[in-house]
Design brief:
808 residues, alpha+beta, six-stranded mixed beta sheet, five-stranded antiparallel beta sheet, 27% strand, binds 2-acetamido-2-deoxy-beta-D-glucopyranose, transferase, ATP binding, signal, receptor, serine/threonine-protein kinase
C-alpha cells in the first residue's frame, strides 16, 4: 500500500497518517486493508493485501508481459491460482496503473493514462475500507461494518466455499489454458430455474449439461423452486435449489476447494493437496470431455487421441489456425447446385449435435441417405449401424465429437470431384493415427499507448484446445457410387478400402493355404497356417476357434485393426467372414516366434538360431515401440492383454512384430470405461490385477512386457516354477526379483553378469543389460501405478541404444 502523495493526505485521521508513514518504511509487510483516499499501485508489489490467514492475496496479477489485472489469488499454490479478477478482458499497464478508494465512495481501477478500466457501483456511499477476508471475499465496508460491495457477488470463473451462487451470478470460463480473458462457456441458472452449462459462442448457443436429450426430471433436477440459489459448503457438498447435489470425492472438513468453469467447458471441483500445493479434481460435470458443445467450432470434431483434441474432417480445413472456436471451413463450394455430383464419407462413431433438418426413425440406411441427397441443405446424416434405423439429416455441423461408445456414424456429403486422399498423403505415414501436425503457440496482440507512449502491453495467448490436428481421411472410407451414386451395400464400402486391407473369400484362402496343410502354430484363439496369396505374398492365416461375434461386429473390429500399421506390429492384410468361418490374414514372419529362440526345445530337430545380444536388444526395443504405439498413439487405444514371447514374431532381419493384438477387445479410453470383464492372458505373464479383479488398464501389458524383457536378458522362462534350496518352490521371476532387488540400487554390489544369459559367454553390452534389468523390474511392480508407461520404457531404451558395442 502507498499513501496518496498529495490531495487527501490532510484528511487522514492522525492515526491513519501515522500508519501510512510507517508503511512506507516497513512496506515489505503485506497489508490487511486499504483505506479511503489511498491507492494500491501496480509497481508496489509489497503493498498487496492478504487475508488474515495469508491464504489469499489481492493485488495486481501478471497476465502477460507488462500486463496486469487486479485480482485475488491463492498466495502459495503452485504458480498461484486466480479466483477473481476485476476486469479480466482489459489488462492494465505494468506502470502507472492503480486501484483507488475515492472519497466519493467509488473503488476504481485506472490504467497508465488514467482511463477507468473497472469500478464498483458504490458512488455516494460512506466507504471506509477494503479488506480481504479468510473466505477469499474482498469487501468494501462503511464505518459501521456494512458491506457496500463484495467480490463474491461478481465471480469470474470460480466459486469458493460458502459463496452464494444466485440468479444474478454466472461463472464464465477463461478463453484458453493459461489465459484469463472471458471465454464462451457459462454456468448459470436458466429461466427454468435449473443450473446449466451453455456454450455462448460467436456463431451458436448450445446447452450441453445436464444432458440436453433428457428432460430436466430425468436429469434429476426440478424447476419449481424459483429461489435459484446454490452453494457448496466447507465439507465439499454442493446443493442447489433445483435439487442438483454432488460432493467432492474427498468430502470432509479442512480441505480447500474451488468450483471452476474451466476453459475447456467442463465444470470441475478442485481440492488442494497441501503437501504439494497443487490442485486435484474431486468432481466434474462431464466425464466425457468431448460431449462439451462448441469445443471445436463449426464443422470441427472433438476426438480422443487419447487426450481430447479438435480436428477437421476430410474436405475441410481449420478456418483460423490459431482458433478452434472458428472451426473448419469446407474446401469446396457449398452451393445448392443440383448438377454437382456428391458422395458420402463415413466418419465412424461420430455425432454432430443439433441442427436436425431431417429426423426419421425406423428407416433403412439407403432411405436415410436418399433423404439427405434430395435436400441440398443436408450437409451430413447420422445413422445407426446398430440398426434401430434412426436417421438425422444435418443442415449445419456443430458440436462434433467422436466417441468409442457412440453407436452411430456420420456420413459427410462431399462433392464427388473433391480429392480428399491428399490428406493421407501428407506428412505422417501412419493411417490409423493420421498425420499429426503440431503447431506452436502464437498470436500476440500488441497494444500501444497513444501520445507520448513508453509502454507496450503484450498479451500472450496460448492455443485454446491444443493444436494437434488429426486428419480423418484414413478412418473413413469411400462409398463408391454406382447408379446415381448409391452404394449397393455397406459391404461394398469395406471392399473399397485400398487393396492393402480386404475381405477374402474362403475359397481363396483355402487355395492359398493348400487346404490348410502347413500349420505354423496353435494358440488360444485359433490355429495358424502358412499360405501364399495369388500375388505371391506369403501370409499367415489364422482360423478363429469359437465364433461368438455377429458378422457386422466382427467386421467393425477387424477393420479397426486393419488400419493399424506399425513396423513392430504384425500387419493384418484382411479377413474372411462367412456364416461358418472366421479367418484373419496376417503378414508372415520368417523367423517365427521369440520363444523358439529364447527357450529352444531340445527335442525338436529343427534348431532355431541363437539370439546374440544385438538381436536381443533390438527385439526388446522394437517390442516396446509396438506396445507404446498401441497404448499411446493409436486412435483406438488398444490393450494387448496377452504379451508373451509366443506373441512376438521375428521377421527375416529379426525385427520383432507383435501378434494377436487384434484379438484383445478394444478398450474404451479413460475413467470408468477402461475396464473389461473377460480374463485374458497367460499365466506367468499376467499382472496381479487380473486376479485381484481390479480394472484392467494398459499397465497389464507393461507388467507382461517386464517379464518378457527379463526373459530376453536371462534366456530362461521366468514363469516356470523352480525349486530353491531343495525346499521352496517359486517362479523364476520371484527368485530373480529376490536376488536382484537387494543389490539393484547399489552400483557396486549389483552384478549384471549374474542375470544375463550365460550362453552369451559374456558377449553383451553391460549398460544396455543393466538398463533392461532395471526397466524389467520396475515393470513388474505389484502396484501398477509404480510401473512406467510404455512411452517411458521406449525412451529409457533409446537412451542406451547408440552405445557402441562395448563388450564386457
Ligand atoms: C509453473 O511454472 C513453472 C515455471 O514457470 C512451469 O514450468 C510449470 O509448468 C508451471 N506449472 C503449472 C501447473 O502451470
Ligand atoms: C451494486 O450492484 C449490486 C449487484 O448488481 C447491487 O446488488 C447493489 O444494490 C448495487 N449497489 C448500488 C449502490 O447501486
Ligand atoms: C427452494 O430452495 C431453497 C434453497 O435450497 C430452499 O430454502 C426453499 O425451501 C426451497 N423452496 C421450496 C418451495 O422448496
Ligand atoms: C467456389 O466458387 C467460386 C465462385 O463461385 C470460385 O471462384 C471458387 O474457385 C470455387 N471454389 C472451389 C473450391 O471450387
Ligand atoms: C454447378 O456445378 C456445375 C458442375 O460442377 C458447374 O459447371 C456449374 O457452373 C455450377 N453452377 C453454379 C450455379 O454454381
Ligand atoms: C488424389 O490425389 C492423390 C495425391 O495427390 C493422387 O495420387 C490421386 O490420383 C488423386 N485421385 C483422384 C481421383 O484425383
Ligand atoms: C513434411 O514435414 C517436413 C518437416 O516436418 C516438411 O519440411 C515437409 O514439407 C512436410 N511435407 C509435407 C508434404 O507436408
Amino acid at each position: 500500500m502507498r499513501h496518496h502523495p498529495c490531495s487527501s493526505i490532510l484528511s487522514f485521521p492522525p492515526l491513519l497518517l501515522l500508519f501510512a508513514v510507517l508503511f512506507s518504511f516497513v512496506s515489505s509487510t503485506p497489508q490487511n486493508a486499504l483505506y479511503e483516499g489511498s491507492f494500491l499501485a501496480v509497481e508496489d508489489k509489497s503493498g498487496i493485501l492478504t487475508s488474515p490467514d495469508k491464504f489469499f492475496t489481492c493485488g495486481f496479477y501478471p497476465v502477460g508481459i507488462n500486463a496486469f489485472c487486479f485480482s485475488i489469488w491463492y498466495t502459495n499454490t503452485a504458480n498461484g491460482t486466480v479466483v477473481w479478477m476485476a476486469n479480466r478482458d482489459r489488462a492494465v499497464n505494468g506502470h502507472g496503473s492503480k486501484i483507488s478508494l475515492l472519497k466519493n465512495g467509488l473503488m476504481v481501477l485506472t490504467d497508465l493514462d488514467g482511463t477507468s478500466v473497472w469500478s464498483t457501483n458504490t458512488t455516494g456511499t460512506n466507504v471506509q475500507k477494503l479488506e480481504l477476508l479468510n473466505s477469499g471475499n474482498l469487501i468494501l465496508t462503511d464505518p459501521q461494518g456494512n458491506i457496500l460491495w463484495q467480490s463474491f457477488d461478481s465471480p469470474t470463473d470460480t466459486l469458493l466455499p460458502n459463496q452464494a451462487f444466485t440468479k444474478n451470478t454466472n461463472l464464465i470460463s477463461a478463453k484458453g489454458e493459461g489465459m484469463y480473458s472471458s471465454g464462451y462457456f457459462r454456468f448459470f441458472f436458466d429461466n427454468d430455474n435449473a443450473l446449466k452449462l451453455i456454450y455462448n459462442g460467436p456463431e451458436i448457443d448450445s446447452l450441453y449439461w445436464p444432458n440436453p436429450d433428457n428432460t430436466l426430471y430425468v436429469n434429476g433436477r426440478t424447476n419449481y423452486n424459483s429461489t435459484r440459489i446454490a452453494l457448496f459448503d466447507d465439507m465439499g457438498r454442493f446443493l442447489s435449489s433445483d435439487q442438483l447435489s454432488f460432493s467432492a470425492s474427498d468430502m470432509g472438513i479442512g480441505i480447500r476447494r474451488r468450483l471452476v468453469m474451466d476453459y475447456d467447458g467442463n465444470l470441475r471441483l478442485y481440492s488442494l493437496d497441501e503437501s504439494t500445493m497443487s490442485w486435484v479434481v474431486s468432481w466434474e460435470a462431464l466425464p466425457e470431455q468431448c460431449s462439451v458443445h462448441g469445443l471445436c467450432g463449426k464443422n470441427g470434431i472433438c476426438v480422443y487421441t487419447p487426450k481430447p483434441q479438435c480436428s477437421c474432417p476430410p474436405g475441410y480445413e481449420m478456418t483460423d489456425p490459431q482458433d478452434w472456436n472458428k472451426g473448419c471451413k469446407p474446401l469446396f463450394n457449398q452451393s445448392c447446385n443440383q448438377t454437382q455430383e456428391v458422395r458420402f464419407l463415413m466418419l465412424p462413431q461420430t455425432q454432430f449435435y443439433g441442427y436436425d433438418l431431417i429426423y426419421q426413425s425406423s428407416v433403412s440406411f439407403n432411405t436415410c441417405m436418399n433423404l439427405c441427397l434430395e435436400s441440398c441443405y443436408c450437409q451430413a446424416f447420422i445413422y445407426g449401424l446398430a440398426g434401430d434405423g434412426q436417421c438425422y439429416g444435418k443442415d449445419a455441423l456443430f458440436n462434433g465429437y467422436r466417441s468409442p461408445n457412440f453407436p452411430y456414424s456420420a456420413y459427410l456429403k462431399l462433392p464427388k470431384s473433391l480429392n480428399t486422399s491428399v490428406y493421407s498423403a501428407s506428412n505422417g505415414s501412419d493411417p490409423t493415427c493420421g498425420s499429426i501436425r503440431t503447431e506452436t503457440p502464437l498470436g500476440s496482440y500488441v497494444y500501444t499507448q497513444s501520445g507520448t507512449t513508453t509502454w507496450v502491453y503484450l498479451y500472450s495467448f496460448a492455443l485454446a484446445i491444443g493444436a494437434i490436428e488429426v486428419f480423418f481421411a484414413s478412418f473413413g472410407w469411400w462409398f463408391l457410387f454406382r447408379r446415381h451414386g448409391v452404394p449397393t451395400s455397406v459391404e461394398d464400402g469395406y471392399q473399397a478400402i485400398a487393396s492393402q486391407f480386404r475381405k477374402f473369400t474362403y475359397k481363396e484362402l483355402k487355395k492359398a493355404t493348400n487346404r490348410f496343410k502347413d500349420e505354423l502354430g496353435r494358440g488360444s484363439s485359433g490355429v495358424v497356417y502358412k499360405g501364399v496369396l495369388s500375388d505371391n505374398r506369403v501370409v499367415a492365416v489364422k482360423k478363429l476357434g469359437d465364433i461368438v461375434q455377429g458378422e457386422e461386429e466382427f467386421w467393425a473390429e477387424v477393420t479397426t485393426f486393419g488400419r493399424i500399421n506399425h513396423m513392430n506390429l504384425v500387419r493384418i492384410w484382411g479377413f474372411c467372414s462367412g456364416s461358418v468361418h472366421r479367418l484373419l490374414v496376417y503378414e508372415y514372419a520368417e523367423n517365427g516366434s521369440l520363444d523358439r529362440h529364447l527357450f529352444p526345445d531340445v527335442s525338436k530337430s529343427i534348431k532355431s538360431p541363437f539370439l546374440q545380444w544385438e538381436d536381443r536388444f533390438r527385439i526388446a526395443l522394437g517390442t516396446a515401440k509396438g506396445l507404446a504405439y498401441l497404448h499411446h498413439e493409436c486412435l483406438e487405444w488398444v490393450i494387448h492383454c496377452d504379451m508373451k514371447p509366443e506373441n512376438i514374431l521375428l521377421d527375416s532381419e529379426f525385427e520383432p512384430k507383435i501378434a494377436d493384438f487384434g484379438l484383445s477387445k478394444l478398450s474404451q479410453r479413460g475413467g470408468a470405461g477402461s475396464e473389461f470383464s473377460r480374463i485374458r492372458g497367460t499365466k506367468g505373464y499376467m499382472a496381479p490385477e487380473w486376479a485381484l479383479n481390479l480394472p484392467i488398464t494398459a499397465k497389464v501389458d507393461v507388467y507382461s512386457f517386464g517379464v518378457v524383457l527379463l526373459e530376453i536378458v536371462k534366456g530362461v522362462r521366468l514363469s516356470n516354477w523352480v525349486l530353491v534350496d531343495d525346499a521352496v518352490e517359486m517362479t523364476g521371476l520371484t527368485m530373480l526379483l529376490r536376488e536382484v532387488k537387494m543389490t539393484i540400487g547399489n552400483e557396486e554390489k549389483f552384478c549384471v553378469e549374474d542375470v544375463v544369459d550365460p550362453q552369451l559367454k559374456g558377449k553383451f553390452n553391460r549398460k544396455q543389460a543393466t538398463t533392461m534389468v532395471k526397466i524389467g523390474i520396475s515393470c513388474v511392480k505389484e502396484d501398477r501405478n509404480k510401473r512406467p508407461t510404455m512411452d517411458a520404457v521406449v525412451q529409457a531404451l533409446l537412451e542406451c541404444k547408440d552405445d557402441t558395442m562395448k563388450m564386457v
